[in-house]
Amino acid sequence: MTRTTKRVLVTGACGQIGSELIPILRQRYGNDSVVATDIRPPETACLRDQGPFEQLNVCDRTTMGRFIEQYEIDTVYHMAAILSATGEEKPALAWDVNIRGLENVLEIARERHLLRIFCPSSIAVFGPDTPHDCAPQTTILQPTTMYGITKVAGELLGEYYVQRFGLDIRGVRYPGIISSETPPGGGTTDYAVDIFYQAILSRTYSCFVRPDTVLPMMYMPDCIKATLDLMDADFDSLKGHCNFNVAGMSFSAQELASEIQKHLPDFVCTYDPDFRQAIADSWPQTIDDAPAREEWNWHPRFDLSSMTIDMIEKLTARLMSRS
Ligand code: SER
Fold first, then answer.
1. Which residue among 174, 188, 217, 220 has the greatest number of ligand 1 atoms within 8 angstroms of its CB, and so is best to mutate?
2. In this structure, is residue 254 part of a structural domain?
3. Residues 29, 71, 77, 147: which is the catalytic one?
């Protein structure tokens, strides 16, 4: 199935991933062909000035449908979501945004025969009964968070639209994403980003998980690469669609702190676990991404050492240019 993307709409464009995906998509398809949407107003010049931006609550199907019609959209990257920690504080909101938002995208895609939809999932689909090491793609999915429940349902719903309506829906299970541009919000893996900000700004960080907490993580360039590689893959070569494990790196909070100390020797990390510890403990430490490697040639570029060097360099430059 060869189909050419012409016009793209991104939900959650102001978020951690959306804000870095938009400039790459605009380079690829042209500024005017990529419509950024978010419930919040845009903050960066790229989002604000370089191409169309529309304010959109993904729970509002009418407005979403209007933008998709108005801009003649054929491809959607549906990045808007409530993450795990916020989801535990506001479970009804997480259900509403994650499930209703996805249902709206899928229904509009069905009605308007859109070409291709990206609907990300997460390692939060796993739970305490999933193998802790090398969690396979197909395994026990019994999450204990509302976020995880919405992501399991989302994977199943996406696959249903592929099988039942012949749509082209794709998604990876993002691990914790580390990036220097836009901070994440409301996730359990946010400590792996916060630690860099605090190490650079104050040389101290109080980490909200135990030092021995190990989780799957990925640096933003690999996250973007995974997203685009899957979207570029030949549909016929895919056996699964919305549930691809993609591994980047796994490390403990303490290993991350030690890696940062190699570059900032006076950095001190302390540990004060909160409710997010239980969420972290319910997720696997490492995941097996063999299907992504086999079906669409996935391979990450960054490990803990190269990610840390690049993060400190980029974030230092960004934070210092603001002060
Ligand atoms: N980063 C997400 C979270 O912590 C996991 O996908 O909620």
1. 188
2. yes
3. 147
Model's pTM, two decimal places?
Answer: 0.96
Encode pLDDT of 149-164 as tens digits: 999 999 999 999 999 9
What range defines the domain where residue 157 resides? Answer: 8-176+219-245
The string of pLDDT tens digits covering residues 17-45 is: 999 999 999 999 999 999 999 999 988 87
- Do residues 84 and 34 both lie within one domain? yes
Which residue of 147, 152, 218, 277 sits with most ligand 1 atoms within 8 Å of its CB, as the best mutation to test the pocket? 147
Residue 296 is assigned to a structural domain of this protein: no
Residue 75 is inside which H or E element, if any? strand 75-78
Domains contained in the chain, number: 2
Q: Which amino acid is at 135?
A: A
Task: Report if residue 201 sits inside a domain.
Answer: yes
Instruction: Tell whether ligand 1 has an atom less than 6 A from the beta carbon of residue 84.
Output: yes
